[in-house]
Amino acid sequence: MIKKITQFFLLFLILLGLLKIFFFSGKTSSTNSLVSRKAKAGFVWAKASGQYARSKVGTFFLGEHYRSVWAAPVQVPVINLNTMYGGLLLGKVGGGMQTTSLNVKDKTGNAYVLRSLNKDPLGVLPPFWRKTIVADLVRDQIAAANPYAALVVAPLAQAAGIFHTNPRVFLVADTDKMFRNVAEQTGNKLFLFEEKYSQLPAAPHQFGPATALLNSVEMLDNRFRFNAHTIDQALFLRCRLFDILIGDWDRHEGQWNWAAYPTATGILYKPIPKDRDQAFSKYQDGVLPWLLTRSFALPKFGHFRANPQEVVAYTINAAFLDERALNTLTRTDFRNAARELQTVLTDKVIEQAVNQFPPAVYRLVGSETERILKSRRTQLPALAESYYQLLAKHVVIPGSDEKEKFVVTHLPQGQTRVQVFALLEGNATSRLLYERVFSGDDTEEITLHGLGGDDSFIITGPITSSLMVNVVGGSGSDFIQDNTTVAKATGKTIIYDTRKGNTIRWGKNTINKTSSDISVHLYDREGF
User: Would you give the DSSP letter of residue 237?
Assistant: First the structure.
């Protein structure tokens, strides 16, 4: 066995060496964007990057991706912070493991960001791999993203009724003294300039009566502390179907901000998508990327094509927020949201949006992008149905750190109604916080999380389906009562809580999962 493993490892190293010779030897390493061609005053001819050119053999194995788009010369303005918005001030350098970003502010405090079109993903690799062909392969896959996609997404989002930035592409000149401290990262390279919605901009703005902008951690902290703080789930669903339409698979919680709106009962949070780097991305058109994106490997790396891949690929990075921000919505809600998007994203809207590509880029991929968008739009209802079925299998219903009453009523024909009420002093119910009727045909289990506060859980009715109800009491002194009866079904009530400090009235078929360990009722609130 050891001999076979050693032989396999040596063969693997030889294969990597051959790949290095055939695919990456002699490739352009410069990331300078300037092209030697005369442009009109204030503009230059530049390309996103010339480092992704490959031979025909290399392209066959590594994928065509958007290599021609990255190398296409486009005419772009040279940024001048002194003249934009009455003068802009350059702030600190930011960005994640891949992108160089620079924070910018105007004199009124409005925030903007410059984000590099080209990226270096080596920061995601362990140090050992950064000097191997693995680093070359990972870096090469940046070519799967369309560097100008955000320019098209903005007008599409506008038509869809989704908050968005208004991106523009600029070149940062290596002679610009305002960038002298970061010249190595920015000089003669293309950057996307857009609003940074980390705080409310000066009025007027697209957020209307919003009182604040929050990141996902801040929003979720408020949502789970106070039961009067809620998420606009209908708008979030519209955003998520829009993500699937444009093939944007990277929608983790760090890719959202939230606008806070006062309501008659509390605060409503509306989603603000950001960072559209993966819209229209194509990861599966080469032998190696195709193998790496199979369901047993990295299926989340999507491919923007006329017939979309399985919806599950678009939920992998977004699973945390999807679970928390789509748990009230029914199959009808999903169907209606898909049809509404179909209605507003007309052929004319799509064509005008795609025309926001630079002319040279439009000539390369404009017609194809239009065709794919129209095809995916046609399939939105079917995609929404698959999305609903995926999320409906197990639905998690969290309360808050305040007191709530959870009422689960098993109904005829395999249905189960869940209601959550806010509790006042003396345990009198006040407003209804949550209500949804589940079908055993769609849903296998539901999980109720009381979180903090002294919560009450009442489960009643004859169980006529196999739907499982998990009750996770939380850190308060909870009252749990299971009055269900079982009629030829496997559905059970399972109680997870601490053994002490709670009042539990067990039913004949209640499953006891109480413990002396407080981790039995922990809940991940932030996802980071």
Answer: H
Q: Kindly tell me the sign of the dihedral angle through the C-alpha atoms of 37, 38, 39, 43.
A: positive
Domain ranges within the chain, ordered by starting residue: 26-389, 393-521
The residue assigned the tokens 């369901």 is: 295
Map residue 220 onto helix, strand or coil.
helix
Residue 204, preceding peptide bond in cis (omega within 30° of 0): yes
**Quick check: 273 and 164 in contact, CB under 8 A?**
yes
CB atoms inside a 10 Å sphere around CB 347: 11
Measured CA distances, 214 to 193, 211, 226, 273 (Å): 21, 10, 16, 12
Nearest CA to 473 out of 443, 493, 492 is that of: 493
Residue-wise pLDDT for 47-68, tens only, equals: 999 889 888 888 888 889 999 9
Strand 479-482 to 485-486 pairing: unpaired
pLDDT for position 136: 77
CA angle 105/111/113 to nearest 5° reads 90
0.85 exceeded by the pTM?
A: yes
**What is the structure's pLDDT at 9?**
45
Cα separation, 443 vs 460, whole angstroms: 18
| Ranges assigned E (strand) in 208-330 | 212-215, 229-231, 256-262, 267-273
First to last CA, the chain: 40
Taking the C-alpha atoms of residue 496 and residue 473, their distance in angstroms, rounded to an integer, is 6
> Does residue 165 contact residue 197 with C-beta atoms inside 8 Å?
yes
